[in-house]
Amino acid sequence: MAPSVAELASNVTDQVTNGTAKLSLKETKQQEPVQKGPSYPFYYPYFDASEKFPPTELFEHTDPGSRADPKKPHLLTPETKTRDLSPYLGTEVKGVQISQLSKEGLDELALLVAERKVVVFRDQDFKDIGPERQIEIANHFGPIQRHPTSGNVKGYPEFHVVYRDAEHDRFREYLGANRANKTSWHSDVSYEKQPPGTTFFFVLDQPDVGGDTLFASQVEAYNRLSDEFKKRLEGLRALHSAVAQAEHSRNRGGPVRREPVETEHPIVRQHPVTGEKALYVNQGFVRHIVGFKDEESEYLLKFLFDHIAKGADFIVRATYEPGTVVVWDNRLTVHSAVPDFGKEIRRHAVRLTPQAEVPIPA
User: Which residues contact 65 (CB under 8 A, 6 or more apart)?
Assistant: First the structure.
């Protein structure tokens, strides 16, 4: 068994790309200044260009929410307090520890997240329970996706590490620096044959102000469309591609742990537990609509992307404080980081991304 986070050594070495560039950081409880290093150096992003994964294979998946008691007695106990962030999505939860939930409680968590799309858990000990237990909990919801290009944790490829400080900003490089608008709406790794469902995100270092995450309901975005327009979308499929992501990493000498995939998914999908219909398109990975001419595809996708991004009345802003864990359903939402904080400030977070079923056409 690996040591707990508290027992881990306070020095880490980041091996970037081919391992030739190294940066030693020391643990500190202070977020500022950035030179003092991350609070949780064990989760510092690790890049090894020689690391390789086999192609993913299809698997049978049963959503844990299908087993849940609709009343959620193991999750929403008398000590649990909830506050909805909007009518359409988003709930803040206090008074329950994810790390202490039984299997029945985790099933109920899956159902709650499917119903509310994104749930913000406060005052959690999740970041301190160690990698094995974190992975064990996430595995309850499906096999954890191992990201083909992002930073992970050495020896633990299940972790997708989000890291930015004064000297490191890989996401800014990927999105491009010459942009007026820095939001980037996406559903995580939607190019997978079985994209993610219930997804976990916990923050280790966070700006005092800013660095939030925007979430939009793809269910409500679909519901706002006219019945006639819905009819025209149902049955259409879009191509989701990992090629640009892989090529960006390859061009900068970073890892491409498995060759990029391109997968067709329905533009409107149905949730396996709630039965809700949701748009399933995102700017990050969708390239075109199958069977359409280029101009037709660009026209329709631009409308859908704009419709989602402009839906301020079905968007919530998840904020972070020490001990926050955000859990969302990647099948029913898109999200975007909000890089509105100074370059000198560190933001360090980790995502665990269990995969779910092959998308069900509506």
Answer: 107, 110, 111, 113, 114, 198, 273, 274
Measure the CA–CA gap between 316 and 319, rounded to whole angstroms: 10
Question: Chain-centre distance of CA 106, in angstroms?
Answer: 18
Nearest alpha carbon to residue 105 among 77, 83, 82: 77
Cβ atoms < 10 Å from Cβ of 160: 24
In this structure, the strands spanning 237-241 and 347-352 are unpaired
The answer to whether the CB of 324 falls within 8 A of the CB of 205 is no
Q: From the first residue on, what is the mean pLDDT of each consecutive set of 10 residues in the chain (362 residues)?
A: 43 38 38 70 97 96 98 98 98 98 98 98 98 98 98 98 86 68 93 98 96 98 98 97 96 96 98 98 97 98 98 97 97 96 94 98 96
Amino acid, res. 53: F
CA angle 125, 198, 89 (to 5 degrees): 90
Q: Is 91 helix (H, G, I), strand (E, B) or coil?
A: strand
Cross-strand bridge partners of residue 334: 216
DSSP 113-161: HHHHSEEEE-S--GGGS-HHHHHHHHHTTSPBP--SSS-BBTTBTT-EE
- 237: β partners: 266
End-to-end CA distance of the chain: 44
Q: What is the pTM of this model?
A: 0.89
Q: Strand pairing of 347-352 and 160-164?
A: antiparallel
Q: Is 292 helix (H, G, I), strand (E, B) or coil?
A: coil
